[in-house]
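FORM 7B - TANDEM STRUCTURE REPORT

SECTION 1: FIRST PROTEIN
SEQUENCE AND TOKENS:
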Amino acid sequence: SISALTFVQKIYLSYNQLEGELPASIFTSEHLKELYVTKNKFTGEIPCMTHPEPKLVQMGLSRNHFTGGLKSCLFTGAPALRELFLSYNKLDTPIPPEIKEATQLSYFSAVHSGLTGDLPMDMMCSSKLFTLDLSRNKLTGTLKKVVINGWNGIYRLTLDSNEFAGELPTFDWH
């Protein structure tokens, strides 16, 4: 069982034909820092971290068939998370307000993942965001000045092909 790998720090299983649900036991190691299962055939919900003090900093789950939304535990259960890749899944969910708990998040990509609703006000707390790519989703509402101006360190902001409306706010980045 993968849960027997208690000292593993990096798991790379991308570009295979793995299928079924991603077992929560993959997060058992207290030393796990990187998990990449990109481009497989995983289905179901993205599991929550199972270790009480996770050290996970990078997680690549893109190009699978995950459904069931973005659970808040992805952000609250991984306080050290810096890079999260969720692109090309079928999440059909809003971004949870608990994204503010991922205070180290610098790279967040969820292209064409079925994200819906407004950009949550809580995203203004993501001051370490360097790259944010939420293009090709179903995000709606207006681009709130207070949220966007909270990303004063952003290098790449990609929000194209959504359903935003209204006026473009002034950017007060320094």
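SECTION 2: SECOND PROTEIN
SEQUENCE AND TOKENS:
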Amino acid sequence: ILESSVDMSETFIIKKGRELAQEDQEKVIDTLETGGLVVYPTTTLYGLGALIFSEDGVARILETKQRPWGMPISVFTLREKLSDICDIPVWGLPVLTSGLTLTHVLPAKPNVSSVITQAGSLAVRFPDNELITAICEKVGPITATSANTHGGKDPIDIQTARDELGDRVDIYID
């Protein structure tokens, strides 16, 4: 289900395991490109996404999560786009190409906001599902933080994410 807080009466049904319909993809992309927030499923918890290059989106992440400034935010990016946001040390190549779904902490490039980094380092994950991969292919790196308030309940399902974040999120994808 895709729901928008802009008009909560507008609901789209998306069956699990299928791609988002083209019009739904466009709505998600438009929302992210205009500084909006999207809750999306991952293989573990629900994530809260904003474009990492959107100052408004990143600020909204911190406000929505009630997260203190200065705490880094991990990101999802495609393997082939990693060098756009991080310097890749030679020692990291074997791990980065291993196919493991780990969080990698790498030196951030200067184009990445210090709001989401810590001491010049960026925590990066590679998407391990089709939905997040498709979003990253269309809009670039997105935040990969959990869809809850800081210290809140783990968002193991869409209802928990909605209970935690409410209408401060523009789109929920289940």
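SECTION 3: OBSERVATIONS ON SECOND PROTEIN
The radius of gyration is 15 Å.
The first strand starts at residue 2 and ends at 4.

SECTION 4: SIGNATURE
Preparer initials: ____
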